[in-house]
Design brief:
The complex is a heterotrimer of chains A (293), B (364) and C (252).
Chain A (H helix, E strand, L loop, with lengths): L1 H30 L6 H17 L5 H24 L7 H23 L4 E2 L9 E3 L4 E3 L1 H23 L1 H11 L1 H6 L4 H26 L2 E2 L5 H14 L4 H21 L5 H15 L14
Helix pairs in contact in A: 1-5, 1-8, 1-9, 1-10, 2-3, 2-4, 2-8, 2-9, 3-8, 5-6, 5-8, 6-8, 9-10, 9-11, 10-11
Chain B lengths: L1 H32 L5 H26 L7 H18 L7 H28 L5 H17 L3 E5 L2 E5 L14 E5 L13 H19 L2 H11 L1 H6 L4 H24 L12 H14 L4 H17 L4 H19 L2 H31 L1
Antiparallel strand pairs in B: 1-2, 1-3
Helix pairs in contact in B: 1-6, 2-6, 2-9, 2-10, 2-11, 3-4, 3-5, 3-9, 4-5, 4-9, 6-9, 7-9, 10-11, 10-12
Chain C lengths: L3 E10 L2 E11 L4 E5 L6 H8 L7 E6 L2 E2 L5 H7 L1 E3 L12 H7 L9 H6 L4 H18 L15 H14 L4 E5 L7 H18 L2 E5 L3 H7 L2 E6 L2 E6 L1 H5 L2 H8 L2
Parallel strand pairs in C: 3-8, 3-9, 6-7, 7-8
Antiparallel strand pairs in C: 1-2, 1-4, 4-5, 9-10
Helix pairs in contact in C: 3-6, 5-6
Classes of the chains: A mainly alpha (293), B mainly alpha (364), C alpha/beta (252).
Chain lengths: 293, 364, 252
Amino acid sequence: MTFLSYLINGISLGSVYAIIALGYTMVYGIAKMLNFAHGDVIMVGAYVSFYATSLYGLPTWASVLVAAIVCTVLGVTIERLAYKPLRTAPSLAVLITAIGVSYFLQNAAQLAFGSSPIVFPSAVKFEGIRLFDGQLVISGITIVTVLACIVIMIALTLFINKTKMGRAMRAVSEDKGAAQLMGVNVNSTISMTFAIGSALAAIAGVLLCSAYPTLQPTTGSMPGIKAFTAAVFGGIGSIPGAMIGGLLLGVIQILGSAYISTQLSDAVVFAVLIVVLLVKPTGLMGKKMNEKV
Amino acid sequence: MLQKKKFSDYSRSCIVTYAIVIAAFIIISVLKTMGMLSSLLSGLLVPVCAYIVAAIALNLTVGIMGELSLGHAGFMSVGCFSGVLVAQSLADVIPFAPVRLVVAMVIGALLAGVMGIIIGVPALRLKGDYLAIVTLAFGEIIKNLMQCVYVGKDVNGLHFGMKDQMALGMDAATGKMLINGPMGTVSVTKISTFTSGFVLILITLFLVFNFMNSRTGRAVMALRDNRIAAESVGIHSTKVKLIAFLFSAMLAGAAGALYGLNYSSIGPVKFDYNTSILILVFVVLGGIGNMRGSIIAAAILTVLPEMLREFSDYRMLAYAILLIVMMLANNSKFKKNFMEKRNLKQLERKEAAARKEATEHGNA
Amino acid sequence: MAMLEVTDLGISFGGLRAVDALNMSIEKGGLVGLIGPNGAGKTTVFNMLTGVYRPTDGGIRLDGQNLVGVNPQKISHMGVARTFQNIRLFSGMSVLDNVKVGFDYSVRYPLVDSFLHIGSYRKREREMDERAIDILKEFDLDRQYDYKASNLPYGKQRKLEIARALATNPKLLLLDEPAAGMNPQETGELMETIQHVRKKYGVTILLIEHDMKLVSGICEYIYVLNFGRELAKGKPADVLNNPEVITAYLGE
């Protein structure tokens, strides 16, 4: 029974990772860049939602909406100002810029919100369900997180496969130049990708902080890195891969901290990354990319 | 003709760099003996040396190899803790401090090198941004691990533990903690000196410049510029990159040992992600691939914030903006045009010189 | 037996059959052309010969040794060197160093010497410098040895690629459109250089080229590729008058 409850916790955490990993994987697939600042957008989303509720008394759903809008604007702005001028620059330059943006968000948040952690009130009010005479408790936030993850996954898959914008995204991800020649607006497609990824990050931020209720400027960086690990695990660029990678990583982390060591649970997750890269560098569902010579 | 000209081309820049370092050392030493250096500044001398070596080490990875490492603080951490441990436990065996410091730095470098191999083998086989993320993960792992390491020493020898101080079961009378979990190193005998830091910088420069001008160094740069072409002329990419990365990790380890033996106590948190970014800022600001720039940037950016303490809240924010602006400026159209014009002028000068030489040759 | 034996070589990318059932046989010392319209699969053949792509089927043998499944650097060590259609120089390095990288396998010294510049370092480096200058002289690049490779004019960059390939001391040299972007005079010079280099260094050459003047001027034998298949082969005069080849080039 304890194992089962660990497993459920793992799936819950994994669902958050999966939502974040979707943002990484979409941006990587389409803009071919590792958006290091993605994890920090989560933190911004959580702060916005927190202040929307505590200062302006907005209901939970509205605060999440506000957070998603703010993060969308933030994500698109970051892309326009920092990444777009570097479309043709070497990947090292883009990566360093992304790290700069991540570092900027963390330190700006520290100046704006202070560095001491605040207690984040759960966005989910209902108690959850008790099974087996109360031996197994599935909390409300767990249920909401898993459901949100499933809904987002389905919606995103439909969006990518059925809509015009989705088709444009797939085209840009295959071949930027060819897509442009076919009349796809590459810049707005990339902006759209950042917008979706950032909105998802805001949702993930609220869910994450509801489950682990401390919020500080560095809150986003570790889950961000782990979600990236999840995206690599599942195969970067692949949407179902991000999902599966996220879930597996969450379960591994919770089981690792339960059965190995709490202090070393992060170390366990990163050890997984290194093993995956050794054994199957393209990830579980990734495809091998051939470089043109 | 070739040998003579080659000397002036390649070595001139190295000699200037050596000269700057030596001149700075002499001036600072003179100021110090004359008592004209504030205690704040003289306290910064060893850390500046350590950061300079770390920045050169990272520049080797970023500028020469073209890969990004976000875990160089992790290598410094390994070097620091192993170096301090060695120096502290050999206090009775090697009473002469400079020799002990050298042994500590060598051991620190070796252990950091072992870590470099463990990380480099999986990450360097891959293309893309994997090294960055793996090194970042490594830095976090090291930080976590070091927070649960306890080492003590008593009459019976060294005691290791991963739980707490009590669990070591040391002899109460003679027991002394060397590494105390989250507190890090405790009651360290400070044996790092400015001179030792200066010598480490010189050795580092000697090795790095030699490496850059050797067949292995050229192979690394060839891979950076064009991997497919480099493999087509027979370069073994994984092996060559691993050598460069190992070298870079070892230098960072030596820097860590120098740093650790300058303070009576350092916690594992000192070598976190922020420190890795700080070193990256030195490298980017000094110019990627430019060793002299790294030295100057590391020195200025270590001393300046200490003198402007009142702005310390904005310091990290300023670094973040610096990283972004440097990258955007480096890749802007303006810069490209400027460089093209400069190259063109240089070419014209060279052509003119060649023509002149040719006519002189003809006359002779 | 021929030096290079290619038997029933084929490769598919997904559903696309890029090269199919290609047979080639090149004698030692030969200078052979590989021509065909754009997209015929010529560069793909080079990529298979140098280990960049692994063929789906068929065999490649160099002096009897198998090349299929061998990685690019090993193939280079076995004696195959190439140039690239889209120039791939080490753009941040000097002209001299570009060539010296090519000696990496043939002129070596231990790693310790690399770091300390002791032992055989000086001797080997001087040997490399001299040999590199010798090769650069063939291409009239020796006076520009200290230029950054990316600062060379286009035609010279193509020549530098050939010089770098020669530094690996190859048995077989693959040239991918060596005359692309050159004017007729430069092409004429290049033809002479190729002939001269072939004799001096004793290499066998296989080249892809669209400039028919160059192909008919120096190649002793020609393979024509169309849609990944062999369309014709033979002496230049015969092949270039073959009506099928003319149709393939000019369209219906």
